[in-house]
Amino acid sequence: MDVEITVVAGARPNFMKVAPILSALKRRRESGCPINHRLVHTGQHSSTMMSDTFFEQLGIPSPDVNLNVSGGSHARQTAEIMMAFEADLEKNPTDLVIVVGDINSTMAATIVAKKLCIPVAHVEGGLRSGDMTMPEEINRKVTDSIADFFFTTSKNASENLIREGIGEERVFFVGNTMIDSLLINLDKLERPRLWNDLNLKERGYLLLTLHRPANVDSPALLNRILEVVSRSAGSFPVIFPVHPRTQKSMEEMSTTGTNIFRVDPMGYLEFIYLLKNSKGVITDSGGITEEATVLDIPCVTARTTTERPETVEVGTNVLLGSKIDSLPGYISEMIAGTWRKASIPELWDGNAADRIADAIVGLWESGRIGRGNSSA
Ligand code: UD1
């Protein structure tokens, strides 16, 4: 009997993670493994620039189903995804649900699958910031407390899971599927139109992204961060692709420094082009700290914690903490080119999705998934 796998994706950072997994599963199928997969898009991110462009650029096949749940409070969004995904799974018998990352869709899909006694594999399991004010930390902990199998990006993440009582036989250290996407697309990057419009030069600008509620939901704090960045960057232009959540706060702000160029959210190939050629990035995104590390681009994270310690320990990332006054010093170092060199974390080599597919085949061969086995 074939193994039926449902892969779930919902928001922008999920798309880079599922793309290589879907390709690896397809290759296993083509080489004779009896594995079928389908893709469910929850709809959490729905606009062209936050979703469709990523499907197109990353070569992700159209989802088999779109649950069309977007916006709303956390409770409403989570509940609506759960209701819609439950109905979907009831129509489509599944032997394994694969969830990725730490967004509301990840947690919602996991709870639904487990209550239907369907095993769940969590890609990027085990990350812990220790900061329970982050919705993502709640999503990670709830997901990991009930999922069955864990594909981790670092030994540290595997250790977190084992410390929490998860048996080693359920934890697979495979590397980072976001880096699979990065490496496979490096020769396809696209120079964005604004490059010429703003007369940008290689290593002649900084990049800024902010979307975490802690940084952007208060227009006063967001304004303060933008002021400090603008002052510290001096004559360096700062390119600021504005996330929809951030846009809401920006609407209440009068001006930003004249060297900060606000632009719409960008496609993947354009954003990575800008990151790769920048002098440095200031961000509150976890994924960008990983990409900056692999591209050896200086990175300051505007947060007090990180769930990705390897980006600080061996990568290019520093945590700003609560001291926004340290930002000018970091920006000066970026501009002066005196940032420390990074090394690449273990197994961030572009082959994580293949390791995941191999592990799934192994789970099937040993009878831990499929063959009517609905509990791990
Ligand atoms: C979500 C994830 C976060 C991830 C981020 C990446 C959770 C808890 N958070 O945060 O981990 O880093 O995505 O972008 O799941 N919106 C649009 N169009 C879109 C997408 C969003 O207008 O295509 C609006 C939503 O309607 C909402 C706001 O932007 O009002 C925030 O979106 P939401 O998905 O709730 O959370 P994010 O802040 O994007």
Structure description:
It is a single chain. With 376 residues, this protein is an alpha/beta fold. The chain contains 16 helices and 13 strands. A seven-stranded parallel beta sheet has the order 3-2-1-4-5-6-7, sandwiched between helices. The protein is globular, with a radius of gyration of 20 Å. The mean pLDDT is 96. Bound molecules: uridine-diphosphate-N-acetylglucosamine (UD1).
Reconstruct the topology from this structure.
Layout: E1 3-9, H1 12-30, E2 35-41, H2 48-57, E3 65-66, H3 74-91, E4 96-100, H4 104-115, E5 120-123, H5 135-146, E6 149-152, H6 155-163, E7 171-173, H7 177-185, H8 194-197, E8 206-209, H9 213-216, H10 219-233, E9 238-241, H11 244-250, E10 260-263, H12 268-276, E11 280-283, H13 286-295, E12 299-301, H14 310-313, E13 317-319, H15 327-336, H16 352-365
Parallel strand pairs: 1-2, 1-4, 2-3, 4-5, 5-6, 6-7, 8-9, 8-11, 9-10, 11-12, 12-13
Helix pairs in contact: 1-2, 1-7, 1-16, 3-4, 4-5, 10-15
Bound molecules: uridine-diphosphate-N-acetylglucosamine.
Uridine-diphosphate-N-acetylglucosamine is lined by residues 11-13, 44-47, 50-51, 70-71, 102-104, 135-136, 211, 243-245.
